[in-house]
Specification:
The chain is built from four helices and 40 strands. It is globular. It starts with a strand and ends with a strand.
C-alpha cells in the first residue's frame, strides 16, 4: 500500500503485481491457423488494409469488422455473411461532402482517397451499426444490423462530422425512446476549414426525424457549436479511450507539456462536457525509466473474482490496464513495456476528493513488464483458480502468462507467432462465452479458444507447458483430460512415449555388430524437451 499525501487529503492507492516478466518461455511457435477460425480482408477484396475496429454483437450473433475501404459482417465462426465497400472515394478537405443534398458542387478538385474506419459501434434499440470514417470530414453512416448493405445516411451538416484522421474516441451514453446519446472526443485534422470543424468534445443526440424520415444529429447538453471546446481538449494531442462509470464519462488522453508527454484521465458530466476534472496517470516505483512514454494499448475489464478479492473491490468492478513504451517502439524498435493496473474505484475516490480542475494527486498503479515484444493489446480472464493474461504485440505475437495473486509473480507459459505478423489488437469477447476471444492480427480477424491445449504440437512441450488448463497428452495430441476422446487410460501428464526421428547408419553387415545411433525425443524416464542421441546395438 502507498499513501500519497497532499496538502488537503490523503489518498490510498493499491500497488499491484510489481514484477518483471522474464522471457522464460521457449522460442515462439507458429500459430497453427488450422486450429482457429480466421478471416482475412486480403481474400478477394481490393484495396484493403489492416482492420481498425471490431464489434462482437451478442444479440444478433454477428461479428462486424472494419478497416480500410471495407466493412465486413461475419458469423461467429468468422465466415463471411456480407461485405460493404466504403472506399476509395473522391474527397477534398475544402469541400462539403457531396452526399449532403445540394452540396455536390465544390470549386476545389476532389481526388481519390482511401477511407479508413475510425468509429464502429452498435446502437442498442435502433438495430443499427454506426460507422464513421476518415473521408467527408468524419461523416457517419448507419447500417442495418441484420444486413450491412442496407445503409442510412445521416443529414445534419457539420453536426455529423465525428471522426478524425489523427485521433478520435467515442462511446454510446444511452439509447432510449428511439434515439441515442453519443459522446465524441476528436482532434481536428490539420488544414480543416473552420466551417467544417467540430467541437473537440461533444455530446450529440441521434434520432429519426418523423417528418423527413431521415436520421440526424443534434447537439445535446452544453455541446452547442464551438462552446464545447474546453481547455482540456486543447491540451490533448491524442484521445485514447473513453468509458462510462457511475454517471460520468471518463476520457483517457495524451497531453504534451513542452517536451514532456503525460497521460491524463478526464472526468466529464454526461450532459456538461465543459465541466470537468482531470488527473495525471503514472507508473511509480522502480519500473523501467521511459523517457518519452506513449500509450501502446489500453483495456478495461470487469474484475474476475480472485483478482477482485486481492484488490479489495467487488467482483466485476472495473479495472484499467495501460501499457506504455518509448515513442520509438511504435516505429519498429523493441523496448521494454510497462503495464500498469488501475482500479476505477480508487480513481473515483480521487476525483470526489478533488475541488480543482487539475487534481493534485496522481493515479498510480504498478505492474512492470520487461519483454522483447512491445505490447499492443491486453486481455485478462480467470480459469478455475488461476488468473491469466494474454498480451498481443506489434510484431504479431501472443504471449500467455499466469498471474500469481499471492506472490505477485507473472509467469509466461506460451508464446505464439500469428501467421502474417500483423499488429495484435481489439481483444473482444461474447459476454456469455468465456472460452473464446476475438482479435485482429493486421488484416486478419482471429477467433482464439482460451480453453484449448491443441496449440502445443508435441508431447514434451505439452507436458512441460505449465498451462493452467492442465494439459496432458491424449494419444497423438495435447488436450485437457475432459477433451480426450480416447479412453482415459491414454491421457497422461507424467510421460511421453519415445519418438525415433532418424537412425544412423541406415545399412550394415548382416552378421551384426554395428552400433546404431538413434535420434529423437523422450528416451529418458523423465520428460525431456531437447533432442537426444542414444546408442544401441
Amino acid at each position: 500500500m502507498l499513501s500519497l499525501v497532499t496538502p488537503t487529503l490523503t489518498v490510498v492507492v493499491m500497488l499491484l503485481l510489481h514484477t518483471h516478466i522474464k522471457q522464460c518461455v521457449a522460442d515462439s511457435s507458429q500459430l497453427n491457423m488450422n486450429l482457429v477460425h480466421s478471416f482475412s480482408s486480403l481474400q478477394g477484396f481490393d484495396e484493403t488494409g489492416d482492420f481498425t475496429n471490431l464489434v462482437v454483437d451478442d444479440e444478433s450473433g454477428y461479428v462486424f469488422a472494419a478497416g480500410v475501404n471495407w466493412l465486413f459482417q461475419l458469423d461467429t465462426e468468422l465466415s463471411l455473411v456480407s461485405s460493404y465497400q466504403t472506399g476509395p472515394t473522391t474527397d477534398n478537405t475544402m469541400c462539403q461532402p457531396y452526399t449532403i443534398p445540394s452540396q455536390s458542387h465544390c470549386p476545389y478538385k476532389r481526388t481519390m482517397e482511401s477511407n479508413t474506419n475510425i468509429i464502429l459501434m452498435r446502437l442498442p434499440g435502433l438495430e443499427r451499426l454506426m460507422r464513421c470514417d476518415t473521408v467527408f470530414h468524419g461523416m457517419c453512416w448507419l447500417h442495418d444490423i441484420s444486413d450491412i448493405t442496407t445503409v442510412y445516411p445521416i443529414y445534419s451538416s457539420r453536426v455529423d462530422f465525428m471522426a478524425s484522421k489523427i485521433s478520435t474516441s467515442s462511446l454510446t451514453v444511452e439509447c432510449e425512446d428511439g434515439g441515442c446519446t453519443i459522446f465524441t472526443a476528436t482532434v481536428t485534422d490539420p488544414g480543416t476549414p473552420v466551417i467544417f470543424s467540430t467541437p473537440n468534445l461533444s455530446v450529440k443526440y441521434l434520432s429519426l426525424n418523423d417528418t423527413s424520415g431521415k436520421y440526424n444529429f443534434q447537439y445535446a447538453g452544453d455541446s452547442v457549436g464551438d462552446t464545447a471546446v474546453v481547455s482540456v481538449a486543447d491540451d490533448c494531442i491524442e484521445y485514447i479511450s473513453s468509458f462510462l462509470y457511475d454517471g460520468y464519462i471518463y476520457l483517457v488522453c495524451l497531453q504534451q507539456l513542452d517536451t514532456v508527454l503525460q497521460t491524463i484521465i478526464v472526468q466529464l458530466d454526461e450532459g456538461l462536457v465543459s465541466s470537468h476534472k482531470q488527473l495525471v496517470v503514472s507508473c511509480g516505483g522502480d519500473c523501467p525509466d521511459i523517457q518519452s512514454p506513449v500509450v501502446t494499448a489500453i483495456d478495461r475489464f470487469q474484475t474476475p473474482g480472485l483478482l477482485a478479492e486481492s484488490l479489495n473491490i467487488a467482483e466485476d468492478d472495473l479495472v484499467i490496464l495501460i501499457s506504455y513504451s518509448d515513442t520509438s517502439a511504435t516505429e519498429g524498435t523493441q523496448n521494454s513495456t510497462v503495464i500498469c493496473l488501475y482500479t476505477v474505484l480508487y480513481m473515483v475516490d480521487i476525483f470526489n476528493s478533488c475541488d480543482e480542475i487539475s487534481c493534485d494527486s496522481e493515479l498510480v498503479g504498478e505492474w512492470c513488464v520487461d519483454s522483447e515484444h512491445t505490447v499492443s493489446a491486453m486481455f485478462i480472464w480467470e480459469y478455475m483458480t488461476t488468473v491469466s493474461a494474454m498480451f498481443g504485440t506489434f510484431d504479431g505475437h501472443l504471449m500467455k502468462v499466469i498471474i500469481d495473486i499471492e506472490t505477485d509473480n507473472i509467469s509466461p507459459y506460451q508464446l505464439l507467432q500469428v501467421d502474417g505478423g500483423g499488429r495484435i489488437s481489439g481483444f473482444t469477447q461474447y459476454t456469455d462465452d468465456n472460452s473464446t476471444v476475438y482479435f485482429f492480427a493486421g488484416h486478419q480477424v482471429v477467433k482464439f479458444p482460451l480453453d484449448s491445449c491443441s496449440f502445443y504440437s508435441g508431447c514434451s512441450s505439452c507436458l512441460t507447458s505449465g498451462d493452467p488448463l492442465g494439459c496432458g497428452w491424449c494419444k497423438d495430441q495435447c488436450s485437457r483430460q475432459e477433451d480426450c476422446e480416447s479412453a482415459l487410460s491414454l491421457w497422461t501428464k507424467s510421460y511421453c512415449a519415445p519418438i525415433i526421428n532418424e537412425v544412423e547408419p541406415n545399412s550394415g553387415p548382416v552378421n551384426g555388430g554395428t552400433y546404431l545411433t538413434l535420434m529423437g525425443d523422450n528416451f529418458g524416464t523423465n520428460i525431456q524437451t531437447d533432442t537426444h542421441t542414444d546408442k544401441h546395438t
